[in-house]
Design goal:
The complex is a heterodimer of chains A (about 525) and B (about 325). With about 525 residues, chain A is mainly alpha-helical. Chain A folds into two domains: about 170 residues, Fumarate Reductase Iron-sulfur Protein, Chain B, domain 2 (Orthogonal Bundle), CATH 1.10.1060; about 300 residues, no CATH class. In chain A, the strands form two sheets. A four-stranded parallel sheet of chain A has the order 2-1-3-4. A three-stranded parallel sheet of chain A has the order 5-6-7. In chain A, helix 3 packs across helix 4, helix 8 packs across helix 10 and helix 17 crosses helix 19. Chain A is globular, with a radius of gyration of 23 Å. The two termini of chain A are about 35 Å apart. With about 325 residues, chain B is mainly alpha-helical. Chain B has one domain: Transmembrane di-heme cytochromes, Chain C (Fumarate Reductase Cytochrome B subunit). In chain B, strands 1-2 form a two-stranded antiparallel ribbon. In chain B, helix 1 crosses helix 12 and helix 2 packs parallel to helix 12. The longest helix of chain B has 26 residues. Classes of the chains: A mainly alpha (about 525), B mainly alpha (about 325). Chains A and B meet through helix 3, helix 4, helix 6, helix 9 and helix 11 of A and helix 2, strand 1, strand 2, helix 9 and helix 10 of B.
């Protein structure tokens, strides 16, 4: 599928950090194959009523921009400077100390100076200075200002779609300047003139119409979940129920659709279903709100809201008490930091209380949505699950903190607690690469497509190398995570950099270890691989 | 080519010396009577303008960058400062940033060693950065002795403490040495490290050179070419009592010092140096991470076009029925 030839790992590792001879404003962007994503197809823009649908590719000389594109962008900038304190502040206060520079996985993996967060921000800051500050208007380049030209726009496109909005730079910035915020605004501006990527827009269009990013229709969802129930029965001898669109359920369960449509997410999904069956949870899946992942986050705040609205709407229609959310990174950025503000207040729901343990989830009392690892950790802590960690003895695990639960939430201990109770062979990666300092998979924020493969492998390199170290030291063979994009993209990343390591969700561990009532003796794990032998 | 910004900054600082020299030579000292007020207005007005601009822009979403465990289940130990669950935590986090440069303390340096990236400790930027800022603050506060009568205890205390080593007469201030050391480090870092040089703008060099020139002229006056401190104090007290009078005679060094100080103060709020106010408003640092327990309100939250369940069911009703899924309308 890939159009670009990917260099071998050894070759890719020859990274030069010396900046080019030409100053950055005089260094034009090079759309090298393998390092950018295809433009969005017209049908997807049309489906979402977005501007300037047309046939185009970023490698074209003519991007078929609207005639007044510059004015559209500048008006859009002005509007956003007035609407977001973050944007205005982050345009003004950077001192270019460079502390963020070598914290970005794309910079570490590519050596391209425009991947230093500070310079990625300067791409737009220079335009801000030129049109919105007196010094920039008067002194131009001397004040770090430059005209907004088509070349500048192309540069924005290339580098704002070479940022995964992972927020690692913002951990290290002495003022907390968050490149994710700047990238999000930058992408919003690009979207105003129809410059966007298909890998972000097609999923968004699918989510809008069918409820999930793969565009699966209601029957397909049911078939797939039944298929997973068959697999569970095959492995455990227990038939679990598949409640869908069920009115009268206590809890609406929303998870990324990749969990029920693509390996290895499916094993995680089987883990959820087994858990819910075992504790007798009265819950339901929804076909209308069948996607947890929010692909609007990769396009605009407005698109986040349009897609996210379905979750509360469906919870209201089905009359559930509260909402439980599966393992997903960007989904939880949206649920934790945006959902209540955008589509709340959810006053038609109840404050979440675990029906099994009676625990009140005080931290989710307004949004009314609980993370599955919070829910499961509470079950285990209260002794409600019978677990046999030896069934995961063939797994030697390390854990990848997904960017958004880490840096936009602070969800570190819950997954680790579950891991410790379900797996006896757990090894942490180096401290600089986990928790709030975790490295991105290199393919989030819509960049996990095949045409962008080289850049993904470069961006994911710091993560992969940290895994390689625990493979060498502890014989790790499995990479755990709580993110659907991770489960898809880390698999490719491991195959490239650290062959032999496969990827799993935390609830796959739970599914393996969970001792179910009336189950048969298990000889295999959820993947059908023999237990015990490694 | 990337060094052009540095060269231009040198030229700019040199050019700024000209008006000072001219003032001293051509006896335009009367300027000293009005100019400080203009500078003060630019400084205060600039900061008010800046802060109001920032503050007027709303904070539509609750977006703290979380650097520790959130408050969730009661038995899970949370990090109240790096991931504040309440106002006290957020204040603590901000205090850490403002007084201790907490985030900069995390700084590391990435290098490729044996075919993989390693992240070495790199606290130098934090150390010299903090030293520079604290020294500059102390040096500025020491100058209060020219503007207060009787001299405020803060200024006398600081001066005594700062000069406790009693090297030379007058005593060498420690903060002057550390200020210069900080400046030299920040400057060399900017010039020597290729990545930092690549991102540096004219104003980045200009700020450092300007402050360095102020420090240098100040030190020269204190230790090598003494000025009439009584005359300086009379001038300064004249400004604060709104009865300014031009000094009869002052050295060129003093004019240079004053001229650069005026430029710095007037330029400060309009430049990147406004980070000293901006940091307090940074949403990723000053917000509490409680967006799931307390609803954050966006003042411009407007309705958007959504795809309703009814529209969804209208499209897929037959397929839903065929799959045995419940529908709202038969």
């Amino acid at each position: 599928m890939s159009t670009a030839k990917i260099p071998e790992p050894d070759e890719l590792m020859q990274i030069k950090y010396a900046p080019p001879q030409t100053a950055w404003m005089e260094t034009p962007v090079d759309f090298r194959p393998g390092t950018w994503s295809y433009g969005a197809a017209a049908k997807n823009l049309a489906a979402l009523d977005m501007p300037n649908p047309r046939a185009w590719q970023p490698s074209d000389a003519d991007w078929k921009l609207p005639e007044n594109w510059r004015q559209i962008i500048l008006d859009g900038m002005k509007e956003r400077l007035d609407k977001y304190r973050s944007f205005r502040l982050f345009m003004d206060i950077c001192v270019r100390c460079g502390a963020c520079a070598d914290k970005c996985h794309f910079y570490i993996g590519s050596g391209d100076p425009k991947n230093m967060p500070v310079l990625r921000a300067e791409l737009i800051r220079s335009v801000y200075r030129r049109y919105f500050t007196a010094s920039g208007r008067c002194f131009g380049k001397l004040a770090g200002a430059r005209d907004l030209t088509v070349d500048v726009l192309k540069e924005w496109f290339y580098y704002f779609y070479q940022c995964t909005e992972c927020r690692r730079c913002s951990v290290f910035c002495p003022y907390g300047i968050d490149q994710a915020e700047i990238t999000m605004i930058g992408r919003e501006l690009l979207n105003l003139v129809g410059c966007n990527i298909n890998w972000a827009l097609e999923p968004a269009a699918n989510c809008f119409r069918t409820g999930n990013h793969l565009g699966i229709q209601p029957g397909g969802i049911k078939d797939m979940l039944e298929f997973l129930a068959d697999d569970i029965e095959d492995r455990t001898g227990v038939r679990v129920e598949v409640p869908i669109n069920k009115k009268g359920a206590d809890i609406l369960f929303v998870t990324p659709s990749a969990d029920y449509f693509a390996d290895p997410g499916t094993y995680t999904c089987m883990g959820y279903m087994m858990l819910f069956h075992e504790i007798g949870l009265n819950y339901t899946f929804s076909t209308y709100a069948s996607e947890g992942g929010n692909f609007g986050l990769f396009t605009s705040h407005e698109m986040i809201k349009r897609l996210n609205a379905k979750i509360y709407a469906e919870a209201k229609r089905l009359g559930v008490k509260w909402i439980l959310g599966g393992e997903c990174g960007h989904m939880w950025r949206v649920i934790h930091q945006y959902m209540d503000t955008m589509n709340g207040p959810a006053d038609f729901l109840e404050e979440p209380v675990s029906p099994i343990t009676g625990t009140r989830f005080e931290n989710a009392k307004s949004t009314k949505m609980v993370h599955i690892t919070e829910f499961t950790a509470d079950l285990i802590k209260n002794g409600k699950l019978k677990l046999d960690p030896s069934r995961n003895d063939h797994v030697r695990l390390t854990f990848h903190d997904s960017c958004n639960p880490a840096r936009a939430m602070g969800l570190f201990e819950e997954p680790r607690y579950i891991i410790q109770k379900t797996c006896d062979h757990f090894y942490e990666m180096a401290e600089d690469t986990i928790r709030e300092k975790t490295f991105c998979c290199g393919a989030g924020a819509g960049l996990g497509n095949d045409e962008n493969l080289e850049m993904r492998m470069r961006g994911g390199m710091p993560r992969a190398m940290a895994v390689r170290e625990v493979v060498k030291k502890h014989g790790v063979n499995r990479l755990g995570c709580i993110c659907a994009i991770d489960r898809a993209t880390l698999t490719t990343l491991m195959d490239y950099w650290v062959p032999g390591v496969s990827v799993m969700g935390v609830h796959e561990l739970v599914g393996n270890a969970l001792v179910m009532k009336s189950e048969k003796e298990r000889s295999t794990d959820l993947r059908g691989e023999k237990i015990g032998g490694s | 080519m990337p060094m052009r910004n540095l060269g231009l900054a040198f030229v700019a600082v040199l050019l700024l010396a000209l008006p000072a020299a001219a003032a001293a030579a051509a006896d335009m000292t009367a300027l000293l009577v009005v100019l400080p007020y203009g500078v003060f207005v630019l400084f205060l007005g600039g900061f008010v303008y800046r802060v109001v601009r920032w503050a007027k822009a709303p904070v539509p979403f609750r977006i703290p960058t979380t650097c520790g465990q959130e408050k969730s289940l009661p038995w899970i130990h949370n990090n109240p400062v790096e991931n504040p669950a309440g106002p006290l935590g957020a204040i603590g986090r901000m205090a850490g940033e403002v007084f201790l440069f907490r985030s900069l303390f995390r700084n590391s340096q990435t290098e490729i060693v044996d075919g993989r990236p390693v992240y070495g400790s790199a606290k130098w930027l934090w150390f010299f950065g903090l030293m520079f800022h604290v020294s500059l603050l102390i040096a500025a506060l020491r100058h209060l002795r020219f503007f207060t009568e009787p001299v405020v205890p803060l200024a006398t205390g600081l001066s005594a403490l700062d000069g406790f080593l009693e090297i030379g007469v007058p005593a060498l201030y420690i903060s002057d040495v550390t200020l210069l050391a900080g400046l030299v480090f920040l400057f060399l870092r900017r010039v020597v490290l290729p990545q930092v040089r690549y991102i540096s703008l004219f104003s980045d060099y200009f700020a450092l050179l300007l402050i360095a020139t102020i420090a240098a002229t100040g030190l020269l006056m204190r230790h090598f070419f003494p000025v009439d401190l009584n005359a300086v104090k009379t001038l300064a007290m004249g400004w604060v009592s709104f009865a300014p009078s031009a000094p009869a005679d002052a050295s060129i060094l003093f004019y240079l010092h004053l001229c650069f100080v005026f430029v710095l103060i007037a330029w400060l709020p309009w430049s990147k140096l406004s980070h000293m106010a901006g940091i307090f408003l940074s949403p990723t640092r000053n917000q509490i991470n409680n967006s799931r327990s307390r609803r954050h309100v966006n003042p411009w939250n407007a309705p958007v076009k959504v795809h309703t369940y009814a529209e969804y069911e209208d499209e897929f009703r037959d397929k839903m029925k065929a799959a045995g899924l419940p529908v709202e309308k038969e």
